[in-house]
Design brief:
InterPro entries: AASS, NAD(P)-bd_dom_sf, Sacchrp_dh-like_C, Sacchrp_dh_NADP-bd. This is Saccharopine dehydrogenase-like NADP-dependent oxidoreductase. GO terms for molecular function: saccharopine dehydrogenase activity. The chain has 454 residues and is of the alpha/beta class. The chain has three domains: 121 residues, NAD(P)-binding Rossmann-like Domain (Rossmann fold); 200 residues, Dihydrodipicolinate Reductase, domain 2; 75 residues, no CATH class. Helices cover 33% and strands 24% of the residues. It has 16 helices and 16 strands. Strands 3-2-1-4-5-6-15 form a seven-stranded parallel sheet, with helices on both faces. The radius of gyration is 24 Å and the shape is globular.
Amino acid sequence: MRSVLIIGAGRSASSLIRYLLSKSESEKLHLVVADLSLALAEKKTQNHPNATPIALDIFNTEERRAAIEKASIVISMLPAHLHIEIAKDCLQFKKHLVTASYISDAMQALDEEAKKNDLIFMNEIGLDPGIDHMSAMKVIDEIRSKGGKMLLFESFCGGLVAPESDNNLWNYKFTWAPRNVVLAGQGGAAKFIQEGTYKYIPYSALFRRTEFLEVEGYGKFEAYSNRDSLKYRSVYGLDDVLTLYRGTIRRVGFSKAWNMFVQLGMTDDSYIIEDSENMSYRQFMNSFLPYHPTDSVEIKTRLILKIDQDDIMWDKLLELDLFNPDKIVNLPRATPAQILEKILTDSWALEPDDKDMIVMYHKFGYELNGEKKQIDSKMVCIGDDQTYTAMAKTVGLPVAMATLLILNGKIKTPGVQLPIKKEVYEPILNELEEYGVVFNEQTMPYFGYNPDLF
């Protein structure tokens, strides 16, 4: 039996573990599922004869190295900043490594040594990053193989609530890490290119500059710009492309409502709110409003945010119970962003029967034989339940499939990498279709711009 060590048995690992266990007999695999919580590892392996759950503290160097040394290949489903020590151990014991996380500078620094040892350190092989890379490179490579020249690439992705579970005014629930949602867009202006011109959107304006997208059968969506759309320009071979934009998908109206929190300052994570532990939700709201001897918190909120009495923005605030004087924050030394996350989690947590949804949308503009053309590629994936969510499926399945391809010698290129080569994306995208992750490609009129107007 070949030993697959999976470190981290959290939400994203459920579909990954189920897939590998389903292949364990035919592929002669034995899974070692390691987590700080033995109970969680046991829950995910479900007494399967080809799986061993173990308790593992990754900060215990001796334990961690002993587990890695015994493995045929290592999968790290830990937070990104915890991968590096595992990667160094993999170098020492000459083990391949697979993660779903962005390639950090520290990870990239191991590239040369990984190549020397003929090791594959596959990263960014989840959803976003991951499926976005693979589905984009498939179409880009096909266009280039015909002699086409890329003019435009726009890519959007969002983790949302499925239509049958969409029952609040925000049309949104937390399907992944709430903190990432609260802090989205911070840390510098969003940067992208339109018709050869660099464009910048400061955080203060980010949620009022949105694009609209239509997905057949699911209606209209909006997208706000990611912080750095140009990160993969050279990686994708798009240095000469005229338009390059990456964005995050939400239902129409979300961004305008979210902008209220941005303008008030509630998404700030840089300072501590005094006596936050004893603060009510109403007091938290009032702390961002000017003093007035007679106006209520509600009136001050309407005035500062310019909310008319018939504006649905007001109903969205009321739905979150933000003006409740009896609900207590109960978070010591909390930042505004942490308090907002707590308040939103009260209202936006998935219910036991709720399902999540992933939406991905690519636009490819290109020139072929003197004619400008466009392909739109769309994917929608609905989760099964609270364990096997759409997010867990789209993050975990590509990780599992890449692991098996590496073990079987189908992926050969060594080094620290992301899944942009045909030997990686072609078999994984084909197999993902069997699990309902299907991209529908349509030929469209070219959605270009007039460069003279930009």
